[in-house]
Structure formats: C-alpha cells, structure tokens
Design brief:
454 residues, mainly alpha, Growth Hormone, Chain: A, 75% helix, globular
C-alpha cells in the first residue's frame, strides 16, 4: 500500500488537524454539493405553479393538483435517471482527468441547465433542461467526495465527509428561502410567472464555480497514483467494479445507497405538494383568498422543508460519533430503524394538519441524516484509481432504482379523488424501504479503522 500522504507538512495545522489548503478543498467541495442540492430541488418548490402554467390549467383546481402530482413524479424520476447517468459518466472522467476539474465543470453544467428552465415554453423543454442539469448534479457528488477523502488526514475523513454533506441541508435552506422570497413575497400575487424567476436563481452555482476554481489543485494522492500506476494497469475500467476484488465493495455501497435514495426521494420530492396541500386546506378553512392564500401556502411549504432540513443537518453531523464509535454497519442499522418509525408516524397516523408539518423534523434526522455517511463510506470502499468511478456508480445507480418511487407515488396519487390524502397513504408505505434495508446489513462491508487504499 502506498504511503502517500495527502497533507502538506510545511503548512500550519488549523482546526480538526486540517491545513489551510485542506480547508479550502473541503470548502470548495462543500459549496459544490450545497449548490447541487439547491439546483436539484428548486423544481419541487414551484412544481404546482410551473406545471399548471405550462399546461394552461387554473391554479388550485382539482385538474391542476392532479397534474402537479403526476408531473412532479415524472420530473423527479427524470432528475434521478439523469443524475445516475451523470454520476457514472463524470465519475470515470474524474478518475481519469482529475477531481477538481470535473467538479467545477459539473457545477457550471447543472447551473446552466437549471437557469434554462426559466425560459421553458412547455413541459417537454422543461424536462430536457432538467435532464441537462441532472447530468451535472450527478457528476459533482463523486468528484467532490473523492477529492475531500483523498486530501484530508485519515483520522479526520469521517468528520470531513460529514461536514461536506452538511452543505445539503444548507442548500435546501437556500432553495426554500429563494422560493419564499420570490413566490411568497416579491411575486405572491403572480404565481403563474414567479416560478420562472425562482429557476433563474439556479445560475448562482456557475458564478461560484468561477470564483472557487482559482488555485484549486488536484489531490496529490490522485496525481501520484495516476503518474505511477497508469503505465502498469492503465485507466480504471468500469467492469472492475464487478470483478472478484471489488464485487463485495460495490454490492455493499449499492445496497445502502438504494435504500437511502428510495426513502429520501419518496419523502422529499412531495414535501412542497403535501405541505402546500395542507396549507391550502387551512387557507380555505380560514376564508383566505388571492395573495393571502398563496402566502399561507408558501409559509407552510417553508415550515415543513426547514424542519426536514434542520433534522437532516443534525442527523448528518450525528453520523460522525456513531460511525467512529460503533462502525458503519451499526450506524446504518440505527438510521434505518429510526427512518421506518419516523416515516410511519409522519404519514401513517392521523394528526392535525399543522402537526404533520412538525413531524418532518424526525423524518429529516433519520432519512436525510443517513446521507452524511456516504461522503466518507463510499470513497473508503475503493482504491484511488477507481474511487470516483466506484463511489459515483454506487451512489448514482441507486438513483436509477429510486427513480421509480416518485413516479409511482405521483402517478397513483394523481388519479385519486382526494390527491393529498392518497399521496399521504402512499407515502406511508415508504416505511417498508428502510425495513428492507435492515435485511441487507449482512452484506455491508465494515470500513471502520480502514486506511484509504491507493
């Protein structure tokens, strides 16, 4: 095993035993992943208004609500499939041409794709723009996670990985704020147009990418392996993931990612629609109309999403002590068990409408929080020359399987006489997913205490 160290001894050691350069790399990847989530989920906030507008339906009618449920499922599935393709494609590119170059390129790609949605004249063009954005969204994760894992000291890989993923809730907070500011304040009286301005904010990551690219070097670990090993074994091959040497690693990462993806997308994709539907009921009961009604709906969306995000941030950081003290397999057992209980309590039990919003907090802790582990667990499974390819495949192949979840929920719920109650009933069944994940734990490869392989 190589003794290459990602640290540079000449630099002063700062917080968490990281040098200034290592913090810069972590911050760059943190921004890339946070804006990845920001761009990925802007659509969910504006889905009801966007879909009704492009289909020329009257907002608030049963036809508009059913169409929103169906097309949100379709758009979420397109995003997942595109992200899967982008993750696998750009994972290989990152292994061959470098982590930082790939990360910056994917940030620009998903920013341009999202901003272009603001100009979409119909749903088909919108879906095409979402697909372009999805390629970059999927590709950014593998490059950023691999770069951080290879740069930070071995003993701080778990902390750095969890900190990297903590940008996901922050990205969601930002998306929530942008939607509330545009659709709930600035243009509350014009929902047929406000969604275009929300999408326009998707260009922000491209501007950030231009700023962070200066002085961002490739990890020494990757550069040394490429220089020393390319002549001996050649570039990483996708088929190696299924070779006897790495088959167990690939299966382990894939099983955990599939379980987590199915839970997260099943729950999160419909937060704005569920919270908006509950808010619409409350507005009708209170006799609110026009901008007041729309303002209440956006407020309920913001509350539910912020509670989900806050729970996710806490759950993400909590993976650090659990993973370091107990190990990766026990950590997944704990988070999947909590996820099953939280999902069933949130959607399978009758609550007052506003109380259901608060139950998104424990769902976020478990369902969202478990993702804090993938930024360090998946890179731990593979050697440097195969790291982005392997981590990108496991994380993003899970999206292919998970793509069916939002489509099925949206499609079935849209046909119900009461689409909101139908959606809640279907979301209850997502609690089965983490239970199945518990049965997959015997195939999980434990990486606690393992040194990153070159």
């Amino acid at each position: 095993m190589s003794s290459i160290s990602p640290a540079q001894p000449a630099e002063p050691i700062l917080a968490l035993d990281l040098t200034a350069r290592q913090w810069k790399v972590l911050f760059a990847a943190w921004l890339g992943w946070g804006f990845d989530i920001f761009d990925a989920l802007l659509f969910n906030y504006v889905a009801a208004n966007c879909i009704a507008s492009l289909l020329h339906l009257t907002l608030g009618t049963p036809e508009a609500k059913s169409a929103a449920l169906f097309w949100t499922g379709v758009a979420s599935s397109v995003l997942l499939l595109g992200s899967a393709a982008g993750g696998i494609l750009f994972g290989r590119i990152a292994d061959r041409f470098g982590r930082s170059r790939t990360m910056i390129g994917t940030m620009v790609l998903y920013a341009v794709g999202t901003a272009a949605c603001a100009l979409a004249p119909n749903l088909w063009v919108l879906l095409l723009c979402r697909l372009i954005s999805a390629l970059g969204i999927g590709g950014e994760w593998a490059a950023g996670a691999s770069m951080v894992a290879e740069v930070v000291p071995e003993k701080r890989r778990v902390e750095a990985g969890a900190l990297l993923y903590s940008s996901a809730p922050v990205g969601l907070f930002l998306a929530t704020f942008v939607n509330w500011l545009v659709a709930g304040v600035w243009m509350a009286g014009d929902p047929a147009t406000s969604w275009r301005w929300v999408f326009a904010f998707g260009i922000l990551p491209a501007l950030v990418a231009i700023l962070v690219r200066r002085g961002l070097r490739e990890p020494e670990r990757w550069a040394a392996v490429v220089e020393q090993g390319a002549a001996k074994v050649g570039p990483a091959r996708f088929s190696e993931l299924f070779s006897p040497a790495y088959r167990k690693m690939t299966l382990s990462g894939l099983l955990m990612a599939v379980t987590a993806m199915l839970m997260w997308w099943g729950c999160n994709a419909f937060i704005p629609l569920v919270a908006g539907g509950l808010g619409d009921r409350a507005a009708a009961a209170g006799g609110l109309v026009g901008a007041a009604r729309q303002g209440l709906i956006e407020s309920w969306k913001t509350t539910a999403t912020n509670l989900f995000n806050l729970g996710g941030l806490i759950g993400t950081l909590a993976t650090v002590p659990v993973a370091k003290r107990l190990g990766r397999r026990p950590m997944y057992a704990i988070y999947f068990s909590l996820s099953a209980v939280a999902i069933f309590m949130a959607f399978g039990v009758t609550w007052p409408e506003q109380w259901r919003l608060y139950l998104y907090f424990p769902v976020g802790v478990a369902v969202f929080g478990v993702f804090g582990s993938f930024t360090y667990y998946l890179p731990e499974l593979f050697p440097t020359r195969l790291r982005s390819t392997g981590a990108g495949f496991c994380y993003n192949a899970g999206r292919v399987i998970a793509a069916g979840g939002p489509f099925i929920v949206g499609s079935v719920a849209s046909k119900g006489a009461n689409s909101l109650d139908t959606a809640l009933s279907l979301l209850t069944w997502i609690a089965v997913v983490p239970v199945l994940g518990l049965f997959a734990l015997p195939w999980v490869v434990e990486t606690k205490g393992r040194v990153l392989e070159d």
